[in-house]
Structure formats: C-alpha cells, structure tokens
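debug: dumping io for the single-chain case to check the tokenizer round-trip. Nothing else runs in this session.
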Amino acid sequence: MKMRLSRAEYKEIARWTDQLRPTRQCMKTLKERFPNHSQSTLLSIFSLEYQKRTKRTISRHHAPDVIESHYQRYLSEAKAHPAAPVLLELANEVDLSPALMARIILDRFLQGLEGGMPSKTVLSGMLKEPTLIPDQILAKNIYQCTINDCCYGPLVDCIKHAIGQEHEVLLCDKLKERNLSFLDENQLRVRGYDKTPDIILEVPIAVEGHIVHWIESKASFGDDHSHRTYLNEQFWSYWNRFGPGLVIYWYGFIGELDCQRDRGILLKDCFPTDIVLCHAAQQDGPSHEPE
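debug: decoded output
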C-alpha cells in the first residue's frame, strides 16, 4: 500500500472527499476509488479534510434560529417516523457531522428540559452513554449518529486515543527489538520534562545518514496544515532542546514535506530499517530555533 504521496496525489484524494459525508459507507466508496491506498491512510486524509470543511461551516449551524429549525425538524420527523434514523438523515442532508448534530440537538433538548444551559459534564456524559437520556427515541437517534460518524464524537475520540497508544507501544517494541536504549514520554515526565517527544534515545542513531536523538510517533497522515502546526508547536521545540530527530507518520505523509532533513527533522512512514548506532556522536543540539 502506498503511504508516501505527492502533493498532487493528495489533492486528488482531497478533492474527491469534498462530495463525501463522514459515514462508513462513504469510506467504502473512497477505498473503491483509491484501491492502492490503505483504509487507514484514506480515513486519516478524509478526517483531516472533513475537519477543515467543518471549521469553515460550523458557525452557521450554531446560530440560534438554525438550531431551533434543526430541533423542530427533528421533533416533527421523529414523531412521524419514530423507528427511522431521522437525526442521522438530517445531519447528512445539511452536511453536518452526525456527532456534532447529536450534540446540538441534545443540548437544545436539555435546555427545554432543565430551563437553562446544561453543564458540559452532563452533555458529554449523555453523548458517551445515550441510555442516560430521558427520551428513548432521542437516545436511539443520538446513538445512531455517534456510531455512524467516522470523524467526530466520543467513539472516534476513544478509537483515536487507542490507535495513538497502540503505535507508541509498537515504536517501543521496535526499539527494544533493536536493543536501543531510550526514555519514553512517561519516564521523561517523571524526570521533570514537560513538553517532550514520545521517545528520547539515550544513545543517538543515524538513519539514512542523518543523526536522530528523538522520535515522535503520529498515528495519522501528515498533510500541509497538520505538519506545519506540529512543526511550530512541537517539532522545532524538540529540535531546539534535544537536537535532530525523526517523525514517523504511520499512515503516510505528503512527500514534499520531507524537506527539513538537513535542518534536523526527518520524516518516515514506518520504523527505519537502516539504523546505525552513533556511540561517539556529540549530543550538542542547536542553540537556537530556526526561522
């Protein structure tokens, strides 16, 4: 399966996602259109693009008159068709994430029930456990929205967290297989570090001729926007503090983004195989952050 994409290949997939909704069926359609890419890579790309789309349009769905319109429409449809997935269908019709639609409608329902704004704790608790909702038809609709959304919602958050943890464990296992000595994020926090990469190598390595002091694991695809954000908020600060490092985007990345090797940040889509141990390497990282 192809993991490293050219920017043109990425844009072709991104353009195709514009017509899709965040449902399981749409992911099947995407996989059929791009069979040479893994389901995980395509889902990651779709999620990135859908989140950008949502950020551009979400404000209009939070307008009070629009919320009321969505809510009254839901009440009417649910009364006429109590067994139908009316909230999921409404979300797809107005091009809003089903999980975000569920949050908006549940919030409005609780306002009517309690006569005021519900607490975020109560709202989040009911979204995670719809059986707590004191309206069985609404509870069923909220559940349908949650399980059919592949980009937002408590189920997706849980899955993303688990996948992130799984790949960090995979990285540690790979390092142990190679008998490489390292400190993980938890060990670094115990030592008083606050902002750290996933792995600091106690003895640096060379990968494809580049020295690596630290490794960051990303269980996602690296596109222009996310990679630029990570560079500014994480990678350059790691570089400034610990020296050059390696970022693994397990679900691939845009190939043109791997342009900082000479400045100290290497990108890969898997654990490197050509590792050389640098016993004599000096660990004096740069004294300032690059522009």
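debug: round-trip ok. The chain is about 55% helix and 15% strand.
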